């Protein structure tokens, strides 16, 4: 009996010890969470700037103004949408419900940058010249993630146009705006209410031209166009059979190219972000060449604003982990798991933003692990295994081998159609060039980076490898699942 009692006492002590450790762990987790390193899915810059894990990328704003049409691509979760919202808040004119400009210096967005002492504020010339000065049209192409038929895409575009009119309906309150052409007020109302004739590309571009014309007249300033998830339809069409792929891709690019490029009178500039660089055709006279494209980790001034630099990671660690030895350990784990994206010709590497912040959110209670490749990303990766020799390619990569690819090579419409056909019918005939497309997609989606010992040749070609343990773990998992399925 005495032995039984002693055992029970020891068991209770053990349980109490376990409960105490769990309480400590939960308390640590609660403390980290309450400090709000970041919140997954939150891209509203006015909220992001308040997080403890906020990194000031506002100097990007000056770089964007160097060119009229800018298209930036990075892998998912490297800060594109947050930076786009930051830029919108910086340039957008603050107005009341009647469309009257508010005093810039007292506006919420002006104070957002000024009171947080962001880097762009220190560039006095750019700050005073551009802050709160522009009317803005913000378009989210995320609505095309499931495009459906061409008719469905056309209908979604009509909704985009109508939403833009709804957001700018204050123009009808301007008593003098339509004095010269009174019938234009009726046309504006028809676009607003969805009763105008909208059956062709020209109808849509005319509606967008018309809106920007009167926005410019109202503000006496040309419009800035911002487009998020510019390639959402492409990523969907590439991995799913759709008889209307050709029409959809051509339609969207024709509308946007004509509206933005051919509208220099009313559109001051445009910034589009996405993951893929896509062109309609592989001939210069037919491709979407008017945009200046800047790819991820390539040799240009935008690179350091997407992903985290080593200095930025060090500053984050200093804010989050006060104890030096823990900080050194955390830096080692972050370098191993989330670093390794080598910037072409610039001699440094960047880290995966989302994964570093996710790690810091849980650093006191959890070992490093893959955070970045979410379900959609992972399922997309697995679909590429239908390509001939792709399994062998991934086996080489997880064995620390390199592959050869051309940096920043566009993905043409014919590639989108060819890949979707193979994924729909994996046992059919395949173009041998599709394997190279698969390699390029791995690079665009963040599964590959330039090898640090590699140099870029005259054809803009590099040797690429798996950048870090996070990506290696994801590739190995996908490879094992595909092999298991094949062997059944």
UniProtKB/TrEMBL annotation:
Region forming the signal peptide: 1-34
Keywords: Signal
Domain (AAA-ATPase-like): residue spans on this chain: 41-275
InterPro entries linked: AAA-ATPase-like_dom (IPR018631)
The species this protein was found in: Clastoptera arizonana (Arizona spittle bug)
The protein, known as: AAA-ATPase-like domain-containing protein
Keyword S-adenosyl-L-methionine: no
């Amino acid at each position: 009996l005495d032995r039984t009692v002693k055992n029970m006492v020891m068991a209770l002590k053990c349980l109490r010890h376990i409960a105490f450790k769990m309480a400590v762990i939960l308390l640590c987790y609660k403390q980290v969470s309450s400090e709000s390193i970041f919140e997954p899915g939150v891209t509203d810059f006015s909220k992001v700037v308040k997080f403890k894990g906020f990194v000031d990328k506002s100097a990007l704003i000056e770089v964007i103004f160097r060119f009229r049409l800018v298209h930036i691509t990075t892998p998912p979760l490297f800060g594109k949408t947050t930076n786009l919202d930051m830029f919108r808040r910086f340039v957008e004119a603050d107005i009341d419900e009647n469309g009257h400009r508010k005093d810039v210096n007292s506006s919420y967005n002006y104070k957002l940058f000024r009171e947080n002492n962001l880097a762009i504020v220190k560039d006095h010339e750019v700050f005073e010249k551009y802050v709160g000065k522009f009317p803005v049209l913000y378009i989210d192409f995320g609505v095309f993630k499931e495009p459906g038929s061409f008719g469905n895409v056309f209908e979604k575009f009509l909704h985009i146009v109508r939403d833009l009119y709804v957001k700018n309906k204050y123009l009808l309150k301007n008593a003098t705006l339509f004095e010269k052409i009174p019938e234009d007020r009726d046309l504006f109302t028809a676009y607003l209410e969805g009763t105008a004739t909208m059956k062709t590309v020209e109808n849509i571009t005319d509606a967008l031209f018309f809106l920007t014309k009167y926005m410019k007249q109202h503000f006496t300033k040309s419009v800035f166009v911002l487009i998020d998830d510019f390639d959402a339809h492409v990523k969907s069409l590439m991995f799913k059979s759709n008889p209307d792929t050709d029409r959809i891709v051509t339609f969207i690019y024709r509308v946007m190219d004509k509206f933005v490029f051919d509208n220099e009178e009313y559109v001051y500039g445009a910034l589009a972000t996405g993951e893929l660089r896509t062109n309609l055709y592989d001939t210069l006279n037919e491709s979407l060449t008017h945009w200046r494209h800047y790819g991820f980790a390539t040799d240009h001034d935008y690179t350091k604003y997407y992903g985290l630099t080593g200095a930025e990671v060090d500053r984050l660690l200093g804010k989050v982990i006060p104890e030096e030895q823990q900080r050194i350990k955390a830096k080692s784990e972050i370098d191993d798991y989330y670093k390794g994206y080598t910037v072409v010709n610039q001699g440094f590497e960047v880290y995966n933003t989302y994964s570093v912040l996710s790690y810091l959110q849980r650093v006191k209670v959890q070992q490093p692990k893959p955070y970045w490749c979410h379900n959609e990303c992972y399922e997309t990766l697995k679909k590429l295994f239908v390509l001939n020799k792709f399994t062998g390619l991934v086996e080489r990569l997880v064995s620390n081998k390199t592959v050869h690819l051309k940096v920043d090579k566009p993905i043409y419409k014919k590639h989108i159609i060819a890949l979707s056909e193979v994924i729909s019918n994996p046992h059919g005939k395949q173009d041998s060039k599709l394997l190279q497309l698969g390699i390029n997609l791995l690079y665009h989606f963040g599964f590959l980076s330039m090898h640090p010992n590699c140099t870029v040749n005259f054809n803009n070609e590099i040797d690429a490898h798996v950048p870090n343990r996070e990506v290696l773990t994801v590739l190995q998992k996908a490879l094992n699942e595909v092999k298991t399925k094949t062997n059944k």
